[in-house]
Structure formats: structure tokens, C-alpha cells
Design goal:
By secondary structure, the protein is of the alpha+beta class. It contains 21 helices and ten strands.
Length: 662
């Protein structure tokens, strides 16, 4: 009956609003108690002076008490005034967004038929986009944020922040259904007590971060630490009430939005999860390699559609989702979707990678059609050049045994010869067998590849000539990674011949396994070189951020607001690193893979490509080479080149030929 009459929805909405208002009053009571404690010494001093005037508190003791309490009251009032001033002036953290003026998205502001009109709540003050798969209301009534939406109406109303991938993947009806409960939260947010409680909590949160602000002298930083401690105590006292207040506001908004496109909203929620999965893969697998190369994809939001379409093609659980693409996408609500996509793509690069705020010679946009050539091929050749640079620094010769290859230049043979180690159980017969297998496997190549595969046992070390003796396995698997045979996809790709690597069984995991000392040294040198390059890049980013911040402050004096304004971010970049630091072995495996890909492109019928879900890909005969990773790991982890040599032979790659570097 409740579902038919709507009584249950009304009761739920009323309960949520009352709960939010009750918790807001609790937050304000915390503020009132703090104010009472601040004026308590002054009140005691007033009582003491009144008692002296009336003749009740007379004598030397009472005079001394009046002076002590007066001094204490003055100090407490000064401290309270300082804390209140810092809390009031502290700039609350704002989500970095792309601000949309109403002229840039008139249909998006209306969303016909608009949820604010149907829900009976005030419209948001403005609309902003963020490169994330979420939507929420954000209070930007602080004077430090007002310049971002000075052209829109609705004083005191929050800003509606929409995840930009939603606009490109969702249809208009789905977006309206997803935003309905969010927009419905503007009703409780307009309640004066709830708005005051939110401003107080946001001010406390901003005051806690004041001691970490740059440019403070030691005395001011000491005072800021004191203010931060007081703000932290107050924030701890009202944290629970603030959390319950927000839950009440969300419950009230959700109940009010029950009548708006309820069936469509259930379907749209499935699209939210799918969009998040595709967006995460697009950022970590596709965009991140481009950012590291100094290129930023200018159409990330359009790329998420391709990524999710590919996901629906591969994953049977996502079947049918791509059939919605015939309906009107929500990005049609924008006047210039291309410019907005480019702005959000640049903001995503700043947030997740720490790139500059403006394009430049070393930070240029790249279209998806140019991605294989501008990003994938350049990445491979840059990594290959870095790998040979490190080999030169270690004094590694061109080929095994100190002999140079027939053709001058960087070769894959040099890398394989350096990383190859003798088998622990290798005897004279095993060496002969290995040499025979190498010569047989490289008939399409040259004689150099087979020679280096059998002679590098003791002659591919450093200039000191030290042999690479087997060492005990590390204590944790994370140091060198799992064995190549550990994954289910590696087993069917390995060659079934006597020269195939003998990977350990699961029963032997506790036994000691030899590691590759040459790989350890090479990985350490690569890590050091990359750390220096990253430090230099971060220094350039910090300098660019300072200049951008100065330009932003100068632009605030203007009166005309552009169609698209990028706000934030507050704090150092990147705010949200996508991946943790990689280990040395991971870096070495990536660089060796890049070297193999360069050799395949230069000497075989291979080409760089883009996989929407996995990023850079090597295309051999038009098909993605998915079996290369385990073979590179066999060389890097165990020093066994046979799986990789068999793959090179099968694909027609000539490792002895020099490759072109950047």
C-alpha cells in the first residue's frame, strides 16, 4: 500500500530530514560549547568586578583574583578570536572540476523535464564536471570559491558535480535518473541549520590543514599548529554527528527521488558500475603510458565509450549494454562536447599524473588515431634506448664473449646475452644441448644470435669479469615476482622441447631457487635512472604549477567568466596516483619487452597498436601478441632465453639486427 499511495516515501523523507536537522543542531551545540568555554573566563571576571563594585568581594585576595582572571580572560579571548578568524578565513578543499557556464550547456542545466522542477527543490547554483565516476553536491559558498560560478544564480545553493564519463556513456534518460537523488539533496541542504553545520565542519577541516600551508614563517607556523590542534579536537567532537547528518540528507534525497524514473534508475545504476570499470582500465592501461611519454589523450571521455564497447564484446556479463549506443548520449546536452572532453582530459592528467596545467612542447595532446605511433612506438623506443644506456654504463659488451655483432647498433641479442645465466644443473652435455637448440632455433636469423645464446655463461657480466653464481631465492615473492608458470595462461604457450625451461613445481616453492644476478644489477641501475628522470620531471611540474597558480590569482580580477573554467586542485600533484611505485624487476621486464617489440616492428611484420582495455599492444599479422609476457619473464627471472628465442623464431624476428631508437 505504501508503494501505491506514496505514504511510505513521504514518511521516509520526513524521517531523513528530521534526523539530518537533529544532527545539525548537535554539531552547532559543539560550536556553542566551544564558544561558551572561550567566554567563561571573561564571565568570571565580570562577576568578580561586579562583586567588587557592590562590596561583596573586597580585600587583597579578591583584587589579586580579579587581576589573574582578567589576564586569563584576555588571553583566552585573544586565542579564541585567532582560532575563529583562522577557521573563518581557511579555504575549504574544493574538488578540482571543469566548471560549465549555463551558456556552455543550456540543455544540461534544464535536463528536460528537470529533476529540480519535478522534485520541488531549488536548482543547483552551477554544474561542474570531474574526471571520475561519481556525482555529488558540493558547497562552494566560501568567498575563495565564488569566482568559479559567479555567472550562475542560486546564491547559497550547492554546485552539482557530475562525473564526466557519465555524460559520454550514459543516455539522457539514464543520466537524469542517476542525478535525481543527488539533485534532491538540495532541499535539505537549503535548511539554515544544516547549511550552518556544514560550513562549520568544512571550516574545521580546512583549519586542520593550515599548518601545512607553504610560505609560513616559524612563528606563524607555531601558531597555526595550535589552531590546528584546537580545530582537530572540535572536529573529533562533531565528526559522528556530521556523518549522521549527511546520511540523513542522503536518505531524504533518495526517498524524495523515488517517484522520478525509478525503473530507469535501477538500470542506470548498472551502467555506473560498468562505467567505473571501463574508466579505471582506460586510465591505468591506456592514458598512463601516454602521460609518462609527455602526451595526454585529448578525448578520454570519448575513449571510455570505445573501452566499454570492447568490454561488452569480450565479457558475456556485459552483453546488451552496447546496444544502447543508438540512443541519444548525454554529451549531446553540451554545446561543445569536444572542448569539454579536452578540458576534463587535461584535468585528469593533472590529477592522476601531475602533468602541467597547460599544453606545451613537452606536454602535447594526442588523438586516438595517432596513439599507436605517437605513444606506443615512442614508448617502446624510449625504453629500449634507456635499457641500452644502462648497459653502456655497466660496461656490457655488444654481444657475449666481448665480440661485437656484425651490424653496429643496439640489438636484442645484446640484451638477451647479458641476462642469460647458466643453468644450475648445467654440465658439459647440457651446454652442448643448449647450444644445439640455439643454433636450430635461429636458422631464420643470423649466426650471432645462436652464439650469444650458448656462450654468455661467464662472459656477460660487468667489466670486472665476475661470474654470476646462483644465489638463494628472496624471502618474499614480491621481490622477483612469481614464476612464469604460475599463471594459467603461460603453460600452453611454452615450447614442448628439451630446451624448454624447467620451472619449479608448487611442491618445491619452499626450496631455494637461483636468481639472475645480471637482472638484479640491471634492474637496480634502471630504477636509479628512472628515479632521476622522475625527480627532474617533478621539479618542472612544481615550477609550472606555481606559475599557473600565480596566473589564476591574476585572472580572478576579471569580470567575464569563460564557458569552461578549471578549478583546483588544492595541494601537490598528483592528488590521486594511479599506480604504486614499480619494482626494479617490473621495470626491467617492461624495458626488455619494449626492446623485443622494437625488434619485431623493425625486422618482422609487426606494428604498434592500441588495446582499449590493456593499452599498448604488439600486433603481429594483425593479431595481438598476447603470449610474449611469460617468455620475457623467463629471461628476466630465471635467465632462460629459450622460450623467448622460440617465440622470435616463430614470428620471424631477427634479434641480431640493430633497432631504431629515439
Amino acid at each position: 500500500m505504501n508503494g501505491v499511495s506514496g505514504t511510505g516515501s513521504v514518511v521516509g523523507e520526513e524521517w531523513g530530514a528530521r534526523a539530518a536537522h537533529s544532527r545539525a543542531l548537535a554539531v552547532l551545540r559543539v560550536r556553542g560549547r566551544a564558544l561558551g568555554l572561550a567566554v567563561l573566563p571573561a564571565a568570571v571576571a565580570v562577576v568578580l568586578y561586579a562583586g567588587g563594585v557592590t562590596g561583596h568581594f573586597t580585600g587583597a585576595a579578591w583584587d589579586a583574583a580579579r587581576w589573574v582572571v582578567t589576564v586569563l580572560a584576555v588571553l583566552v579571548l585573544l586565542a579564541a578570536a585567532a582560532v575563529a578568524l583562522v577557521i573563518a578565513r581557511a579555504r575549504p578543499a574544493a574538488t578540482p572540476t571543469v566548471e560549465l557556464a549555463e551558456t556552455a550547456a543550456p540543455d544540461l542545466y534544464r535536463l528536460p523535464p528537470g529533476p529540480p522542477h519535478r522534485l520541488g527543490v531549488p536548482a543547483p547554483a552551477a554544474i561542474a564536471l570531474t574526471p571520475d565516476c561519481d556525482s555529488w553536491l558540493e558547497d562552494r559558498t566560501h568567498r575563495a570559491h565564488r569566482h568559479l560560478h559567479r555567472t550562475s544564480g542560486g546564491d547559497g545553493a550547492p554546485v552539482l558535480v557530475i562525473g564526466s564519463p557519465f555524460l559520454w556513456w550514459m543516455r539522457v534518460g539514464e543520466l537524469r535518473a542517476v542525478l535525481a537523488p543527488v539533485v534532491a539533496g538540495t532541499g535539505p541542504a537549503a535548511q539554515p541549520d544544516i547549511a550552518a553545520a556544514r560550513r562549520f565542519v568544512r571550516g574545521l577541516d580546512a583549519a586542520v590543514a593550515v599548518p601545512r600551508s607553504p610560505g609560513l614563517d616559524p612563528l606563524r607556523r607555531l601558531g597555526a599548529h595550535g589552531v590546528g590542534q584546537v580545530a582537530r579536537v572540535l572536529l573529533r567532537a562533531c565528526r559522528g554527528h556530521a556523518a549522521e547528518m549527511e546520511r540523513g540528507v542522503a536518505a531524504a534525497g533518495s526517498e524524495r527521488a523515488q517517484a522520478v524514473d525509478y525503473g530507469v534508475r535501477i538500470v542506470a545504476q548498472e551502467q555506473v558500475g560498468l562505467a567505473y570499470a571501463g574508466w579505471d582500465r582506460l586510465l591505468t592501461r591506456v592514458a598512463l603510458p601516454a602521460w609518462r611519454m609527455g602526451r595526454w589523450p585529448a578525448k578520454l571521455d570519448a575513449g571510455v565509450v570505445s573501452a566499454l564497447t570492447e568490454l561488452s564484446r569480450r565479457d558475456r556479463l556485459a552483453e546488451g549494454f552496447s546496444s544502447r549506443l543508438g540512443e541519444r548520449p548525454a554529451c549531446d546536452l553540451l554545446e561543445e562536447p569536444g572542448a569539454v572532453d579536452e578540458a576534463t582530459s587535461l584535468l585528469a592528467a593533472r590529477l592522476f599524473h601531475g602533468g602541467p596545467a597547460e599544453p606545451g612542447p613537452d606536454w602535447a595532446p594526442v588523438e586516438w588515431s595517432q596513439y599507436p605511433e605517437e605513444v606506443v612506438d615512442r614508448k617502446w623506443r624510449t625504453d629500449a634506448a634507456r635499457l641500452h644506456q644502462v648497459l653502456d654504463g655497466l660496461g656490457v659488451t655488444e654481444a657475449a664473449g666481448g665480440r661485437t655483432s656484425d651490424a653496429a647498433g643496439p640489438t636484442l641479442t645484446r640484451v638477451m646475452a647479458h641476462l642469460t645465466t647458466p643453468r644450475p644443473d648445467a654440465g658439459p652435455e647440457a651446454d652442448a644441448g643448449s647450444e644445439t637448440g640455439s643454433e636450430t632455433g635461429s636458422e631464420t636469423g643470423s649466426e650471432t644470435g645462436s652464439e650469444t645464446g650458448s656462450e654468455n655463461g661467464s662472459e656477460t657480466g660487468f667489466e670486472t669479469g665476475s661470474e654470476f653464481a646462483p644465489m638463494p631465492a628472496p624471502e618474499s615473492e614480491s621481490e622477483v615476482g612469481p614464476a612464469p608458470e604460475a599463471g594459467p595462461e603461460a603453460a600452453p604457450d611454452l615450447p614442448a622441447d628439451p630446451a624448454a625451461p624447467d620451472f619449479p613445481d608448487e611442491d618445491d616453492e619452499g626450496d631455494e631457487e637461483p636468481v639472475n644476478p645480471a637482472a638484479d644489477a640491471l634492474a637496480g641501475a634502471l630504477s636509479a635512472l628512472l628515479a632521476r628522470e622522475e625527480a627532474a620531471r617533478e621539479a618542472r611540474v612544481v615550477a609550472a604549477a606555481e606559475s599557473a597558480r600565480t596566473a589564476e590569482k591574476a585572472d580572478r580580477a576579471g569580470t567575464a567568466a569563460p564557458h569552461v573554467v578549471v578549478s583546483g586542485p588544492d595541494g601537490p600533484l598528483p592528488l590521486f596516483p594511479l599506480q604504486p611505485p614499480r619494482t626494479g624487476r617490473d621495470l626491467l621486464a617492461d624495458h626488455v619487452t619494449a626492446m623485443v617489440c622494437c625488434a619485431a616492428v623493425d625486422t618482422a611484420e609487426a606494428a604498434p597498436g592500441l588495446d582499449w582495455l590493456d593499452g599498448p599492444a604488439l600486433l603481429v599479422g594483425g593479431e595481438r601478441a598476447a603470449d610474449l609476457g611469460p617468455r620475457v619473464l623467463a629471461l628476466v627471472e630465471d635467465g632462460d632465453p629459450e622460450p623467448l628465442r622460440a617465440w622470435l623464431t616463430r614470428t620471424g624476428v631477427r634479434p641480431e639486427k640493430p633497432v631504431r631508437l629515439v
